[in-house]
Amino acid sequence: MEPKQIREGYLVKRGSVFNTWKPMWIVLLEDGIEFYKKKSDSSPKGMIPLKGSTLTSPCQDFGKRMFVFKITTTKQQDHFFQAAFLEERDAWVRDIKKAIKCIEGGQKFARKSTRRSIRLPETVDLGALYLSMKDIDKGIKELNLEKDKKVFNHCFTGNCVIDWLVSNQSVRNRQEGLVIASSLLNEGYLQPAGDLSKSAVDGTAENPFLDNPDAFYYFPDSGFFCEENSSDDDIILKEEFRGVIIKQGCLLKQGHRRKNWKVRKFILREDPAYLHYYDPAGGEDPLGAIRLRGCVVTSVESNPDGRKSEEENLFEIITADEVHYFLQAASPKERTEWIKAIQVASRTGK
């Protein structure tokens, strides 16, 4: 009997020979993880058995690389994977951990319906707390803060985090709030911005998180950036990054010159409405940007040359300047979600 498929999608995997990071199509089965060079490949490049394996998340072995997790097999072989954003990493980690636990207990993997239970005082779900903190209406407000002739965009202060935890009744007092905030910081749900908060993380302060109005922090997928002595041109350029992130993930994109398809990480922002795409294997700067104001986005069933396409789940973005972009999602559901999100952003963004 074939093992059941639990989850699939693009992740960036570190090679075991040359140690390079490349996007791969990953398939999680009940007993192991298969990885493919392309989604359309019929046979995998390799397989990682889960029996007896351990999972480490977050894995902070690679400095600036975020959302990394590690699987160590019984033969002490380490396999490193990088997700596009925090929620994606946590979803993979949950399912892999459950698959390993099911193997150990001789059980079949089965998803259970989840319902909110009463949280015990000593039990805190950091993932759920993080999502509450990011809530647009009731969460922590992201601001543009200035210090030492620098402008920190999309961030907030340490004391604001503790204020929110106390007022939201997530903690009983500020001291308990420091413990929770430090845990959020250690798990990668919060990131330090500025010299003061970074020095605390590096160990020069008594607590890694500071309940301080001069200590700045940001959410890892917020679009945070720091400006220093910017010219007018720089300010105009950075304007496209000020929008709120409403969707992100990996898609296949067709190149304009060679017409070849490559995996890219996409970040969709609204107000102003931009779709930035990045090399998922690394690099903080985008490879390009699609201005969405006034664009048209539709699903397509044929290649740009008009022939019937063998590729599935294609969609096209036509900008106001009549530049055509062809993208491919992993499933019909994902294609529909991206099209709807882009349509909303194009109508509301600047």
Count of alpha and pi helical runs: 7
**Major pleated sheet:** 7 strands, antiparallel
Structural class: alpha+beta
Shape: globular
State the helical fraction.
Answer: 10-25%
| Order of neighbouring strands in the sheet with most strands | 4-3-2-1-7-6-5
Radius of gyration: 22 Å
Q: Summarize the helix and strand pattern as letters.
A: EEEEEEEHHEEHHEHEEHEEEEEEEH
Hey, roughly how much beta strand do the residues contain?
25-35%
Give the N-terminus to C-terminus distance in angstroms: 54 Å
Average the pLDDT over all residues and give the rounded result: 84
Number of DSSP E strands:
19
Relevant terms:
350 residues; alpha+beta; seven-stranded antiparallel beta sheet; acetylation; Pleckstrin; repeat; phosphoprotein; WH-like_DNA-bd_sf
